[in-house]
Amino acid sequence: MVAWAPWGVNGPHAAGRRMAHLLWIAPPRLLGSILTRTRSGELPLNTTDRLATTSSSLRDLILRKLTYTLGKPPSEARDRDWFMATALAVRDHVVERFLVQMHQTRGKEGKHVYYLSLEFLIGRLLRENVGNLGLAEELRTALAELGVTIDQARLAEPDAALGNGGLGRLAACFLESMSSLAIPAFGYGIRYDHGLFRQILRDGWQQEFPEDWLSFGNPWEFARPEIRHRIGFGGEVTAEALPDGDERLRWNPGEWVDAVAYDTPVVGWRGKHVNVLRLWRARAPDPLRLDAFNRGDHHGALAEQVRAESISKVLYPSDDSPAGQELRLRQEYFFTSAALQDLLRRQVRQAGSVNTLAERVSIQLNDTHPAIAVAELMRLLVDEHAVAWAEAWAITRGAVSYTNHTLLPEALESWPVPLMERLLPRHMQIIYRINAEHLDAVRAAHPDDDRLLASVSLIGEEHGRRVRMGNLAFVGSHHVNGVSALHTDLMRQTVFRDFNTLFPGRIVNKTNGISFRRWLMQCNPGLTGLLVEALGPKVLDAPDILVQLRDLAGDAAFQGRFAAVKRANKEALATMLREQAGVRVDPAALFDVQIKRIHEYKRQLLNVLHTVALYEAMRAQPMRDWTPVVKVFAGKAAPGYHRAKLIIKLACDVARVVNRDPSVRGLLKVAFLPNYNVSAAEVIVPAADLSEQISTAGMEASGTGNMKLALNGALTIGTLDGATVEMAEHIGAEQMFLFGLSADEVTERRASGWRGTQAEATSDTLAEVLAAIGGGVFSPDDHGRYGDLVASLRAEDWFMVAADFDAYCAAQQRAATLYRDQPAWRRTAVLNTAGMGWFSSDRSIADYAREIWGVPVAT
Fold first, then answer.
1. Exactly one of 704, 716, 719, 765 is catalytic; which is it?
2. pTM for the structure as a whole
3. What residue ranges carry the coiled-coil annotation (predicted)?
4. What is the pLDDT of residues 126-168, one digit of tens each?
5. Same domain as 715, residue 624
């Protein structure tokens, strides 16, 4: 029998549903073979049944999809129609690979990885899937024969609004690498109707609007309405008497929501393996209260549907209100419970029981968002599968591992106990018991140490009783990993210091990486072609050989070709800046790029202050030989993060003044690109000359934008923070513009009572910049707009913006000086690319597989 388990079709009518599923997803050419040969038990995928990969066969398949699926003749098709038809044709090839894979692995049992993440920032998929399948040239020819360019189809695809920043993009890179390394895996998340938000800048102020990425459908996904899990909230816990006189606690939720599955195939490099991203959509079990509707209460009849479906409407709803906090908790429990129910169902079907779960399954928690998995897995094992508590705890600890992504206290989630008790009463009972047994063990080993007990408790008492989700994830995991060497060391020394003492060896490091398929081969084909010419085609499969570029760094001819690729990419970005930000720039200028989520610790504000200082200096000293600079900002601020929104407004105000001032003579241009997403990054990253990685030292866990930019030949200006530390080791610190306080020095400054006025007193430039911004030079309509912002820099200066200002300006000057020496700049750019081979997500995932998950890796 064909092993259909990963698609989740089972039950009393499994055979019929399997056939229906196969008929639905199979390419037309396979249907006859399927119908005639399924009864015999043969998998209908011999070589004679396989889809052809010639340009003519692709052309015919696209035309069939356009005509018979979309119902449009070519003469009436628009770009979006061509994209949909093309995507559906490519999807057939992906599904065929999946069916072949299922046939080849039939009867072979192995450990599966389940990656739980609230975000999967996958971006556009057409180019990735075509590239990984090796169909790029055939598709280009096929579309050309239909009178369509591949860019017409590609650019009509919307970005999937399933994430915000680095956390979600990392999850997407990791899924692609798991497929490329043939690691059987599922990604689990939420299918957001509108994602985070669409960012519009109105007079420099961020405005949030819903993303409409699903308005025309999603051709990559398969709706799985038969795969749904019931998720409970509220209600009460009752005790049931068992025949042996014992009691079993039973949760009786007061509200139910259905989690309905949507599957997106994730194809690996060269089409070797296909995994599944399974996203859950929230649906009300009864979408319409017919009795209320018939009474005339038409709004009330839909209330349950609206409440249920709000769970999968948007990513990160504002938690400024109690209702917002409750919705976030509902989201996190919703997708985590659905994922665990799904994988347990698969476990029972394949193994017959849940007892061997830890041997067959590895569950990776991507940050604290799915940390409720520890309590939920215990509930499912103990309450639903009648596993004894001690055995259930051993299974849970053996299956679960947790990735920490932040040292920021506000990002290590905690939930008010009253909210948890009301929304998840059974889980609170389980958390209390886990905590009691955990603290009993700590007390036995460390008697009379109340400080230690308070530190490692799952319940915090500092600002009202709250459940500490980071502590819960730590206690319930067999491994806890940081995402860069520095971050992991700081975890051991700070937020999890006491846990590290209690459980030595549990904290390990797994430095992040990026998918070279997406962030080199797809977004920078010019550089990819040059690398293949220089190093051979093996570089596409073995990025570590990029180190051989060091031998070519001083070669003038290679430098020239490297620079020509960069120039073409800069011209593409210049077009985007003109079209989306209304700013005309010179591609010959130094493109200084800072693209990331807007947050005070990422210090976009420091970059803006330098921009003001550079602007004032250019006006005051027009006789100097200035390096032309284009400052590019992009990123979103959380809807409730008012200080971050004010920083965006300041950047836009500075841009307006600078770009309109003729005295600068076009030597400085500033642009803030709205609605930053993966597709925008794919244009910006290959074009960047200077990569801004200027977070306050000790506060950036890793960063992956730093890796993408350096891989594409951008030089890094940055602090020794996150993975930039390791990049300096591989590239060479002398090839970067490093500056500022170290993580230890930041801690010392804060402890000493540092104030920004101390920096202002010793820096005339900083004093002038703060006076200009605070005095309304850039906000003539509201002179006091930035008064509080400037006051915070002069006071506690928590993020060390004032403290690092002079050092940052000096590093910027070094960059500007080097850029005027183009041969030296080009040599350094080549060396940056040469040093990035280690930062592949394939390497990261191989490390996870060997050292945390215990699964084999394809070679």
1. 704
2. 0.93
3. none
4. 999 999 999 999 999 999 999 999 999 999 999 999 999 899 9
5. yes
